[in-house]
Design goal:
Elements (H helix, E strand, L loop, with lengths): L2 E2 L1 E4 L15 H13 L4 E6 L4 H13 L4 E7 L2 H11 L5 E8 L2 H8 L3 H16 L5 E6 L6 H14 L3 E6 L6 H14 L7 E6 L6 H10 L4 E4 L13 H10 L1 H4 L1 E2 L7 H12 L20 H9 L19 E4 L4 H10 L7 H17 L2 E3 H12 L7 E9 L7 E8 L2 E8 L3 H13 L4 E9 L8 E9 L2 E9 L2 H17 L10
Parallel strand pairs: 1-10, 2-3, 2-9, 3-4, 4-5, 5-6, 6-7, 7-8, 8-9
Antiparallel strand pairs: 11-12, 13-14, 14-15, 16-17, 17-18
Helix pairs in contact: 1-2, 1-11, 2-3, 3-5, 5-6, 7-8, 11-15, 14-15, 16-17
Bound molecules: zinc ion (ZN).
Zinc ion binds next to loops.
Length: 511
């Protein structure tokens, strides 16, 4: 027996809820296309009722993705489910994922409902969802702290009502593997109609056990795992897709199931998500970390050269390492540029947009002769920022840094359409640049994080800078890329200010 393990990716919904990881519709679309290329079974595209922007993103993904099922999250109320249903309508295969809290504390304090009312509401939710699709997932929020008798009761009722997947989330990351597996085993045994659905788990990584808990649940009979690229997600994140997929693939002898994932797309997906969110991947991260397949010590190297399997349980090329190939150069034409963007799933809205982007590409190709996919993603992330959201824009800059002299920055900005010139001194050129920008913006924000990463290898690589700013409890990440890291820093800082300036309000469910 070799069952299929369904991979449900929630990078675009749960992953996006990491502080500062919010993405634009175009960015989400690019990630969705990559997930489809990787043959993810279900893409949770967002939470349609959270805001109009979220609705539009889910809908755009439902229109674009053909191979994977596209799913929207919805609370168990009529409005949420109708919004989700409308958003997934264009999908070739659409799923509604609805949830309600089932732990005594949540039912009493948050929902102010009795257990009977909660069951009744869940059943109603399935009925509304059925008007849109036959593919319905039900989650018991905070299942980890719910009473098992009540879980059995509500699951039996929603399966009877038409739910096709039952998800057991460890919302707060409190479970440990053996105990979580026992919970799954008990539920599958005790719910009378459990054989009619796929059992799913959704684990958070607060104790570093998300992947271990998910895999233990698979051993106990779960056949869907909810996960994210790079383990992105709220707090310590979710189970990471690449680790779950490769554990199951490498140890088929233990798991008796496999996924349909094209694993050679894993590293490109990881880089794409890291580039778009600005969350770098730690070098020792399993599968997708820069050192995951590096054999530094002499003894290991010798062993690997003589016989690869001495120290390697997987091959780097099987997960997509070494796949970053030269795609375009200085002499590439407009058509080559356009078709590469299309292959990457980057949407070009008009000829104007293309011309503008192509001009930027030529500028970059002059500075950096070899252009990789990662460069194009970075370029288009910059480019994708819609002008109406760009309150602040960098027009020109000049930085001075010399031994024994105080570093200085001179910057010309467009602020809401007006040109402003500013200069400042700082402890280094980046500090001077940020001070110069602040002297105009006066944002009163707190700088939480500043990081620089080389997008590709070589000293002519573009530097990608992430700046995380906080103000009144809101946290945003700004990104900027340039072959000059000080310019990239200024762009990243302005990008973060622009995000704070556009007051996007949204609700974040805890599932
Ligand atoms: Zn979650």
């Amino acid at each position: 027996m070799n069952d299929q393990l369904i991979i449900f990716d929630t990078t675009l919904r749960d992953g996006e809820q990491s502080p500062g990881a919010s993405m634009t519709r175009d960015e989400k679309l690019r990630i969705a296309r990559q997930l489809e290329r990787m043959r993810v079974d279900v893409i949770e595209a967002g939470f349609a009722a959270a805001s109009n922007g979220d609705f539009e993103s889910v809908r755009a993904i439902a229109e674009a993705v053909k191979e994977s099922t596209v799913c929207s999250l919805a609370r168990a109320n009529e409005n949420d489910i109708r919004r989700a249903g409308e958003a997934i309508r264009p999908a070739a295969r659409g799923r509604i994922h609805t949830f309600i809290a089932t732990s005594p504390i949540h039912m009493e304090k948050k929902l102010r409902m009795t257990p009977d009312q909660v069951v009744e509401q869940a059943v109603k939710a399935i009925a509304w969802a059925k008007e849109y699709t036959g593919d319905i997932e039900f989650s018991a929020e905070d299942a980890g702290r719910s009473e098992i008798d009540f879980l059995c009761r509500i699951f039996e009722a929603v399966i009877h009502a038409g739910a096709t997947t039952i998800n057991v989330p460890d919302t707060v990351g409190y479970n440990v593997p053996e105990q979580f597996a026992a919970t799954l085993r008990t539920l599958i045994e005790r719910v009378p109609n459990s054989d009619k659905v796929v059992w799913s788990v959704h684990c958070h990584n607060d104790l570093g056990l998300a992947v271990a808990n998910s895999l233990a649940a698979v051993r106990a009979g779960a056949r869907q795992v909810e996960c994210t690229i790079n383990g992105l997600g709220e707090r310590a994140g979710n189970a990471s897709l690449e680790e779950v997929v490769m554990a199951v693939r490498t140890r088929r002898d233990v798991f008796q199931c496999d996924t349909g994932i094209d694993t050679t797309q894993i590293v490109p997906a990881s880089k794409l998500v890291s580039g778009i969110t600005g969350f770098p991947v730690q070098p020792n991260k399993a599968i997708v970390g820069a050192n995951a397949f590096a054999h530094e010590s002499g003894i290991h190297q010798d062993g690997v050269l003589k016989h690869r399997e001495t120290y390697e349980i997987m091959r780097a090329e099987d997960v997509g390492w070494g796949a970053n190939k030269l795609v375009l150069g200085k002499h590439s034409g407009r058509n080559a540029f356009r078709s590469r963007l299309q292959e990457l799933g980057i949407v070009i809205e008009s000829e104007d947009h293309l011309n503008h982007a192509f001009a930027r590409f030529k500028e970059l190709a002059d500075k950096k002769h070899e252009i990789f996919d990662e460069d194009l993603h970075a370029l288009m992330s910059d480019e994708a920022t819609t002008p109406e959201l760009e309150h602040y824009r960098l027009l020109s800059s000049r930085f001075h840094s010399e031994t024994g002299e105080t570093p200085q920055a001179e910057i010309t900005l467009a602020v809401g359409g007006n040109e402003t010139h500013t200069c400042a001194e700082g402890s280094g050129p980046v500090d001077a640049a940020f001070k110069a920008i602040e002297s105009v913006a006066g944002s009163g924000t707190e700088l939480l994080l500043y990081s620089v990463n080389a997008i590709t290898t070589g000293t002519d690589a573009q530097g990608e800078v992430t700046v995380r700013l906080a103000k009144d409890g809101r946290v945003v990440n700004g990104q900027g890329a340039d072959t000059d890291i000080i310019v990239a820093s200024a762009k990243a800082y302005l990008n973060a200010l622009n995000k704070l300036h556009s007051k996007l309000e949204r609700v974040n469910p805890q599932v």
